[in-house]
Design goal:
The structure is a homotetramer of 148-residue chains. Helix content of chain A is 14%, strand content 36%. Chain A is built from two helices and seven strands, in the order E-H-E-E-E-E-E-E-H. Chain A has helices at 25-41, 132-135, and strands at residues 4-10, 58-65, 74-84, 88-97, 104-114, 116-118, 125-127. At the A-B interface, helix 1 and strand 2 of A face helix 1 and strand 2 of B.
């Protein structure tokens, strides 16, 4: 049972904008990258088609920005499982600049995703219980894990 | 005094992802596009350097996703000023699919931005009161404007 | 029979980079947007699944950059069909800044795309002749159309 | 004197499009990432402001695409200095999928960049000789380095 994963990404030139900092939309992309790496760390993939396609649409995402990131900064994205529900997962993310000085927390975000599959009758996607093969590997992080 | 603005954007191929829908990070980009168009509609620009550079860093952004957008969909992004504070603005956004059927609200988001300029003493960006030339043109939307 | 199409796009903040100009990767995205709009102008879609899925993978793309584009510039992308082959199309693109001063050509690009469908025997994508429903609507532009 | 550098990047979900493959615009972004990493490998940065700002605008970029890249693929981008001129550099790039099977070359690209600085008289960017501190560290790759 896992509740945490960390990845590091470099801020590339194409992540920056004319304000000279990483465009804020990339924080959401990095959250998702951490989510997918978390799945891989459990021997899973976010993209599964066997025995049947399973999707994880984003239901909500937010982010609070404290400090900017700049070109060539290294940023650690720490994923923490905030909530494990029957048909959805809520992740928290802590962004820390881990290159240069000062090294510090620069942002915090949240991503809520639903587990869905295609309903064979209607052809529409509908929320389904997270399959045990996935759910059994994931647990909510203890409160102290979020402490700064 | 204005509190609202609407833009329409097309979902381009490069906005989509392998799930066949618009990648969620683009909702944040479209919020920002609406914010900038709102400023232009008031005869302002988000990017001002005269008499001195003024910046609008993002402090918080969130979005709730109800329905996906797909390639070639037209989406209207309605900006509403939720809060006007001395040194910051909070916007709400309502996304509506306005092409094909069904036409409907697909997402709602929020963007909070601070008004900053460079402190001549320290060289660092710091929050400052929104200049009257901008503040006098903007007001908070009435509660009923947010009603669905 | 058509050989030309024009679209206009705004340079949004998220298209810029820390050099203060539109990131060069977006020129390729705008070429593709013009290609797709060209298809729509003919009553077609680049994304067709009926009677069977047809794909248009990019085989080659290039661009020569003469002048930068900046935030809030309007850019016209003119598509010209350079070559119509049995199983592929080659487009040329002329980018012109059409807002502010000076208005001028800022870049020229090329996009070569193949027409493919899934081979029912092998399951792999393979080049196929462009279906008449599409090919009959497209012709190569005359040489003088490319003249500056 | 160096003429080569290699980086590896993961294809993230946000790099993909609705065709299920990495959007072609990202090949150009990865070329640039390799260029910047090449500079860092020489103790340089593409972003220098001391003793005065030096820029490297893109003059030309092209890419030939042989095979698609997919989500979670690892791709090696090999940079080779194709030409070293007085005021510009031309790089070649070879993209190889280095995860899963088959591992193979998937694309080849070119990037030509000019060395510019702001002219103090006119305020405009103009091409200048590459400073010795940079030029002395870079040489053109031998022809055999490009061999497949």
């Amino acid at each position: 049972m896992a509740y945490e994963h960390r990845i590091v990404r470099e801020v590339e030139f194409y992540h920056t904008d004319m304000a000279g900092i990483m465009h804020f939309s990339n924080f959401y992309r990095f959250m998702e990258a951490a989510e997918h790496a978390f799945f891989r760390s459990l021997g899973l993939s976010i993209h599964t088609v066997d025995p049947e396609p399973l999707g994880w649409p984003r239901v909500h995402a937010d982010c609070d920005f404290s400090y900017p990131l700049r070109f060539e900064d290294s940023v650690e994205i720490q994923l923490l499982v905030r909530e494990k529900r029957e048909k959805s997962l809520v992740y928290s993310f802590i962004f820390r600049k881990v290159s240069g000085e000062p090294q510090r927390e620069v942002a915090r975000g949240t991503l809520a995703v639903a587990c869905v599959k295609r309903d064979s009758a209607t052809g529409k996607m509908k929320a389904v219980p997270i399959p045990p093969a996935i759910a059994d590997k994931i647990e909510a992080a203890p409160p102290e894990a979020f402490g700064g």
